[in-house]
Hints:
The protein is α/β, with parallel strands linked by helices. Helix 5 (119-136) packs antiparallel against helix 6 (195-207).
Amino acid sequence: MPTFDFLSLLWWGLPLAAAPIIIHLINLLRHRKVPWAAMEFLLASQRKYRTRVLLKQILLLLLRVVAVLAVVCALAQPHWKNALGQLLGGARTSHVVLLDDSYSMSDLSAGGGVGDTSAFDRGKLVVERICSELVAAPGVQELTIGRFSRVGLIAASQPVNQPVNAVPEKSSKVLGQGQVSQSSCFESARQVVTPLLVQQVQDELATLSPSATDVGPQVALTAAVNASGGAAATGAANVVWLVSDFRAAQWKSADDTAELLRRLSVAGTELRLVDCAESEALNLTIERLEMVGGVPAAGVLVPLEVAVRNHSSRPARDVPIELREDGQARPGLRIPEIPAGGIATQRFDVRFPRPGSHVVDAKIFPDAVAADNTRTAVIDIVDRVDVLLIDGDPRGAARTGDAFYLSAALAPGSGAPTGLRPRIEQPRSLAMLDLKAFDCIWLLDVERLDPVEIAAVEAFARAGGGVVFFVGPRTNAEAVNLSLVRDGAGLFPLPLAGPVDFLAEKAQRTAAVGGSEDTVPDVVVEEHPVVAVFSGQRNPLLDAVRIERFMAVQRGFEPPVGSGLRRLLSLRNGSPLVVERPYGNGLVVAVLTTAAPTWNNWARGNPSWVVVMLELESHLARTRRKVESLEVGEAVSLSLDAERDGDEVDFLIPPEGTLVHQTAKPSPGGGLVATLPEAGTAGPYNARWKQIDGIQRERTFAVNVDPDEGRLERIGRERLDRTLSGVAFRFDSAASMQPHSGSLAGVSLVTPLLYAILALLLVEQAVSYSASYHPTVRQKRSV
């Protein structure tokens, strides 16, 4: 059945249809009878044609009445109801409108290149249109509106028996870029749709912008299930609107989301999915900005790597990257090409002269989505990094022992600062020291370890620390197998058979130039990042290393599948020389020869010894030195020492530096924890507090967006049908639901009605001409 957008105009215009009848009656009242002899002939002629003339006049009058009615109806904006139109006509209908405000909705390509229209702008227009339709619909229309990032409030915001027109009080909170007042109609209980509510929705929509979150539809639909259940308890029909951009990353394999939609569909809820995106544009995302080795110490070069991913079907060329250190611009980078759907990386070095938290920012040029064009890394620089060396030599600190040569490699001196500070201790220190203060532990030809010492080192490795074993003359293979290997359950990577002499070997090899004999290298480089600098062609530094004795592996040993055992270096006879295996969250490396030049000549003036030891230390400590990065939406937590720190903490929130004060509370593990419940925007967050002695302290946290949200690939209707198999839903585009379109509540009848009015007026003119008198003009005869 047809309905009207302006029903009141229709009722006010209907009396105008009587105007032609009134005019006709007035004209009849104006006739006067005039006696005339010739009238008898005319009356006789009138009686003969009276019926036909009367029919024409009645038809003409009806045509004019219908023409007036048609004009009034056209002004009232009629449309023919479709499925939604039938829903709007019920006695009570509850509508839950879920608006996606994740940062992919800021996609400017959704506007088809017109102005600055984004997918989120289109979504806001859809919400406005829904509200406009509901306020003009018959029956009682109830409305709940929620954004994906904040919609968790709506499920239990109001008891079922609470009046639906009550607006609950809301506590003030950080709502991201789009702030909503305490009397907001967003994320609140169901409310009866009134013109005042529609105006409030429009005003609040004007203040909203996409958040920096990557929240998907699952949480929003969970709230919708609860909200729809509450509406069903009051006898209301349910309609759920999902206004989103339907990216493939969230919908391609959305089993949980599909199950929630299926539950709504089975419960009789009408599902309306509205797609706000229209095209896929070039979008680049800074996926990573992190340390890749090195020692984060004052005055030491720290290598960083930035990775940019191309979320499009065509390559991106000549991509500039802007870099800033502590807010100051530094020389940027340029990526020649990023393949379609691929990733490209660039490395650069930073050096900070003072300890503390330092901020490094990377930024690429603007594209379809701006939120993922910037990434922040916070590097905590210390004065020096302590490295624990456990010397198995009971004499200790001998200038010819393993600890001497290893400490010389890790800290060569002021001429080549590494930021490392070796600390040489005896094995008994393992049970007494706080091992959390170290990133790596090096055990050098230790004869034996007590159970309590083994337990301490294993706990250190499981927590992410790096452990290195060097064997030597004091190493007892049987004791190692029994206490440290333990059939693969222990810390040591592989079982040992005992020390073996490695005889020198000569081979007749013709060099590429000169034809001279060459010695076969004792050491073979494997594929591993620690020795990557020596991989490929033969390296004269490693070629000069001679191994005289090594610890052999038990015959027939094969690493278990999934053990993660890798070789760094091997001997020319195929025996392992340096191996690595994960242990918990950490790594354990076994070097099957001595650190001192006792069983080899490696540490005796060979520069490759220093290079490999420094690379190994950096590799093992990478878990401990990983640049911490939080994602938008996560909590920012600061751990404090209850004996040293105060409990009052100020958090400075970017970009304006808004100050939020928090009081630290006791943590389950001891100490204090100050928490900022949610990081609503990306950027560096500063936490400031005072110690008990009055010293001001500060720490910086890096908060970034989830790079996966920058994937703008759309799922499409066909794949969406497969994902939501068995779910009854209607899928529309945002463009079809704009104010100029009639698809929301039905098919517009204005255009066909205008054509009908034109045809009606043409027929009226023809009937009018036929019903009126037109004297004929005779042509004069020529003489």
